[in-house]
Write a structure and sequence with these properties.
The structure holds two protein chains of two kinds. Chain A is mainly alpha-helical. Chain A is built from 22 helices and four strands. Chain A has a domain at 3-58 and 97-213 and 255-274 and 383-559: Orthogonal Bundle (Hydantoin permease). The longest helix of chain A is centred in the first third of the chain and has 51 residues, at 151-201. By secondary structure, chain B is mainly alpha-helical. Chain B has a two-stranded antiparallel ribbon. Classes of the chains: A mainly alpha, B mainly alpha. Chains A and B meet through helix 5, helix 10, helix 11 and helix 13 of A and helix 1, strand 2 and helix 3 of B.
């Protein structure tokens, strides 16, 4: 069967599965729509959380980033997994005991204030939209490469699928679809990873193969270091970021991860407090399977790329390794990816030989995203593996998009309509608003997918920074400090958000230069500073104002004791 | 549940959290960021040790930490009879 036919089969088959699940798991009440009725088993919730969390960025981009920046990418690997430790120990069990539907629910009720609630709603919506725009674009790119439709058609197909199961099924539909999507995406990531690992090193596990010894007697990492240095790149295992910057970036990504509303809300769906802890454990296992394979995939991909383009002693035009291969001798995948614009070759010295390096002699521009998508082709794996990768990339993007859209629609129907604007609407009307909001959110997300703002990559810093400096500290203090009151929490959030936004906007959009950064902290790491400011301001302001009412202090006492976590209550 | 009991439970809970968070900090921010260059002098199955902690080791420890926390908390909940 041809590659196209196989791709249609894999992607189409996975879509049929998702739609089937959506019809089986239709939501009938707001409780089912928001938190899947609160009855999801912890293992299933762990898988759903993993699929929710691992987006097109984790599936497609992460290995590419690691591959091209080496050790500096550690901040992403540690940040995007270490956040789950914070979630499991500091947030999830207590939020589950609290037993409401959303993050603004907790912040609004705990701080007995609609101002606090509204700030939380605004943060939730900004964070989620930032994220979702990238997902729809990812779906479009995968469709355009593998199904030969243009990117816009791809985005629209993706919108239609998400529309179907998110609007119809709500959280219940999304949860079980995400379980299926996790299975598809992990298979799609691990099969080529294992193939590559065996091919390059003879080792089965990508986790250990990076350190394995090659025929030359050196480990893969040592080979990569030597190749990189020879070509003028930084040594792969050495970093160029300062320790301070790496520290703040890792912390911002960790606390940001723990504060992402679409991840937190998944822990509202399990039956007991105990299950919230357990499902965080499962979620991280499922995530770690992919994340610990990423360094291997990145390393093999990089070695493969350099050796294919620059050649070994046998393939290089001059007969000397690492000096360049004739364009016509380069395998077919090169031209295929040139068509998508993700690889560009400019024959500067007109010798017909492709050469890749960090110096002026470089003739190749490679988009980082290509590492995962083109890896199976570069390694000449069977066609069904390539088709599987396409299905996996789509699953990763769609599962995250659906989770985000649900959070957006819930924020609007529940936190804004029901809790702030019109408390008298019935359950049925609220459900109608939720579905309506989901439709609008999908249309807006689709618009950003078709007309991507040029700053998608930049705003990721914004999403994590915002979550780290506002949502995360507000929830943490709400649980661990009985004394924290409205004034403290609101002042803390405002200072955190304003300082972080100002720094990110200045350096990402107004052309701030590297020399001007405080202690060399990059915008991606400034969320940590915003978070510290939030804590300090909240502490000072709350100590100067009245303590919270007795019933609020009672709520805090209550969420600290696991027993008695009933089903999620709407009011 | 009496007030004293609730306070004792919360105190033990905090101690568990602080212990595990200390380990969390040491493997990620310690081994992966602050002392990474020193650890890189040591080879570990073909990896420089600091690089291994930063890109893989810390993640394995994170997983182990959450499960250790789950088991500690289950025991604590039973001890104070607050389990579900």
């Amino acid at each position: 069967m041809s590659l196209d036919a196989l791709t249609f089969l894999f992607v189409g088959g996975s879509f049929a599965l998702y739609i089937g699940i959506a019809i089986w798991a239709r939501a009938g009440s707001t409780k089912e729509f928001y938190v899947a009725g609160g009855g999801v088993p912890p293992v299933a919730n762990g898988m759903a959380t993993a699929a929710d969390w691992m987006s097109a960025a984790s599936f497609i981009s992460l290995a590419g980033i690691v591959s091209f920046i080496g050790r500096d990418a550690s901040a992403y690997l540690m940040g995007w997994t270490g956040g789950y430790v914070l979630l499991a120990m500091l947030l999830a069990p207590y939020l589950r005991k609290f037993g409401k539907f959303t993050v603004p629910d907790f912040i609004g009720d705990r701080y007995y204030s609609n101002t606090a609630r509204t700030i939380a709603v605004i943060c939730t919506i900004i964070i989620s939209f930032t994220y979702v725009a990238g997902q729809m674009r990812g779906v479009g790119i995968v469709f355009s490469r593998y199904l030969h439709v243009d990117i816009n058609t791809g985005v629209i197909i993706g919108m239609a699928i998400v529309f179907f199961y998110a609007v119809l099924g709500g959280m219940k539909g999304i949860t079980y679809t995400q379980v299926a999507q996790y299975c598809v995406l992990i298979l799609a990531f691990m099969v080529p990873a294992i193939f590559l690992s065996v091919q390059v090193t003879g080792h089965f596990l990508p986790q250990t193969a990076l350190g394995a010894t090659l025929e030359s007697g050196q480990s893969v990492l040592a080979t990569l270091d030597a190749l990189s240095v020879e070509l003028g790149f930084a040594q792969y295992t050495a970093g160029s970021k300062t320790t301070v910057d790496l520290f703040f970036m890792t912390a911002a990504l960790m606390c940001g991860t723990a504060g992402l509303p679409h991840v937190i809300v998944r822990f509202f769906t399990v039956p007991r407090v105990k299950d919230a802890r357990i499902s965080a454990g499962w979620a991280l296992i499922f995530i770690a399977i992919l994340y610990t394979s990423v360094p291997g995939v990145a390393g093999f991909g990089r070695v493969n790329l350099i050796q294919t383009v620059n050649g070994t002693a046998e393939t290089a035009a001059s007969g000397v390794a690492n000096t360049g291969v004739k364009y016509e001798d380069i395998p077919e995948w090169f031209a295929r990816w040139e068509n998508t614009g993700l690889i560009k070759w400019e024959d500067k010295n007109n010798d017909g030989v492709v050469f890749y390096s960090k110096t002026d002699a470089n003739e190749l521009t490679v988009n980082r995203d290509i590492m995962v998508l083109a890896n199976p082709e570069i390694a000449q794996l069977p066609a069904w593996v390539i088709a599987l990768v396409a299905a996996g990339a789509v699953a990763a993007a769609l599962s995250t998009a659906a989770g985000l859209l649900l959070v957006i629609s819930t924020s609007i129907s529940h936190d804004l309509m029901k809790k702030t604007i019109n408390p008298n609407i019935t359950d049925k009307q609220e459900l109608l608003y939720a579905r309506g909001a989901a439709v609008v959110a999908i249309l807006v997300a689709g618009y950003f997918g078709v007309n991507p703002p040029g700053f998608v990559a930049q705003v990721v810093a914004l999403a994590f920074g915002l979550a780290a400096c506002s949502v995360f500290p507000a929830i943490l203090m709400g649980i661990f400090s009985k004394r924290m009151n409205t004034q403290g929490a609101v002042a803390g959030m405002v200072v955190g958000i304003v300082s972080t936004m100002a720094y990110i906007v200045y350096f990402k959009f107004m052309g701030g230069t590297k020399d001007e950064m405080w202690f060399g902290i990059s915008p991606e790491g400034f969320g940590t500073v915003g978070m510290i400011l939030n804590f300090v301001v909240a502490k000072v302001v709350s100590s100067m104002t009245a303590e919270p009412p007795a019933e609020i202090q009672q709520i805090v006492e209550d969420i600290r004791i696991p027993r008695g976590a009933g089903a999620a209550q709407s009011h | 549940m009496t007030k004293e009991n609730a306070q004792a439970y919360w105190g033990e809970n905090l101690r568990i959290i602080i212990t595990y968070m200390a380990i969390w900090f040491v493997v990620s921010f310690g081994c992966g960021v602050l002392f990474v260059d020193a650890l890189d002098q040591i080879q570990f199955f073909g990896f420089p040790l600091g690089f291994w902690f930063a890109q893989q080791g810390s993640i394995f420890v994170f997983v182990a930490l959450i499960w250790a926390y789950v088991s500690s908390m289950n025991k604590l909940d039973e001890k104070y009879d607050v389990h579900e």
